[in-house]
Amino acid sequence: MKADSSGKSYTVKEATLKLMQYCAYRDRSQKEVEDKLLEMRMIPAAREEIIIKLMQEDFLNEERFARSFVRGKFRIKKWGRYKIQQELKARDISSPIIKLAMTEIEESVYKTTLYELAEKKLNLLSEEDKFKLKKKLGDYLIRKGYESSLVYEVTEDLIQA
Length: 161
Description:
By secondary structure, this protein is mainly α. It is 69% helix and 2% strand. Strands 1-2 form a two-stranded antiparallel ribbon. A hairpin with a 5-residue loop joins strand 1 (2-3) and strand 2.
């Protein structure tokens, strides 16, 4: 039995139930669950036992987490592939799972989204110099995580010199 930062102590069973609720609310990565267990000050043996139990009962599934993460960040936040991959790596998701999850993004939808995002940003930019305009638009799209080759293609398409 260990205590979290609020002083509450948890048995393995209580911690498991709490983490089942935590994982049921939305998909979580194993790293997020491990961080939560550390926050609860669970001992290493208990942490391992709880993580195994969560995986066996399908509360914790890295592939499902990665796929839903990719869908959400692309559809809602309009992030590009590069930014999504970097964020998944930061969450300790393995490369094969990242590669599999990235198949959630269809190429045609990806390019359409990139063009829509670029057009929307272009309408907000007030710059007379076309080179500066291309630079500002390109920088924005790169920050969103889109590949530089696609960004170049889109900026050249939308801004004729």
